[in-house]
Amino acid sequence: MSTTREPRTPELAGRAPADDRGGASPRRWLLYALLVVLTLIFVSPLLYMVSTSFKTTAGAAAPAPQWIPQEPTTQAYRSIFATEGTPVVRWLLNSVVAATAQTLVILVTASMAAYALARVDFRGKKIAFAVIIATLFVPPVILLIPNYLVVGRLGWLDTLLAVILPGAAGAFGVFFLRQFFISLPVELEEAALIDGASRWRTFRQIILPLSRPALVTLALLSFLTNWNDFLWPVYVLFSPENQTLPAGLSTLQNANAVRYDLLMAGAVIASVPVLVMFFAAQRYIVEGVGRAGLKG
Q: In this structure, what are the phi and psi dihedrals at residue 120, rounded to the nearest 5 degrees?
């Protein structure tokens, strides 16, 4: 029995679905408007910070906010770099060294521990992972005094080792990379093992290259955590030349409580490296976070 379809009327044949029309729907325009508003809300403090750093002392302290400096000047930046007792360049280098070194140590330790928990079967594996996850619920301030005592016994006080090694074995990196490793197809490792590759070689030459998005994401998060750390460096670093940037800028704030132009200039200096790293690695961050949550 043959069936014939009714011919489409010209009105129906020429009518396109609502989603395929050239113009955007009102709902989409409303979404774009909401995104623009949210962007302005989040970006406006950053823009005002940059604007204030180029104002004069009087302009920065004016009661009426000025988004555009009436008399743009770089006096605040010149004052920061020329003030005795505030070696901002040294603080910047100390922060770069400390954050970079701790990030590298975290990548090494977290990647190996995460791979063992994701792929290697051993007795007590679930218990070990549960203990690691449990440490995420411990407030970091509780470990302040124990870490200080350990660092003091090792003779690391007032050195960059004190702000590099204590936080270089965090549980978040292990959990994050383990989730990513689980999402990778196990057939690739099995093929490598069949071809005679050792577990270590499989980890180095197959797993790590495939995990670049997750590694870049973890590296950026670890760098940002160390870069913004304020409380711990204040406790373990005493000499002005050994301070990191956040701790050093706090002394600048205490010495110049009403110099908002100096404070904003210091904040801009501290923000630029992190913003550059984020924009350079944002593609890997999106992919790494998305892949890390695929499997549990």
A: -95, 130
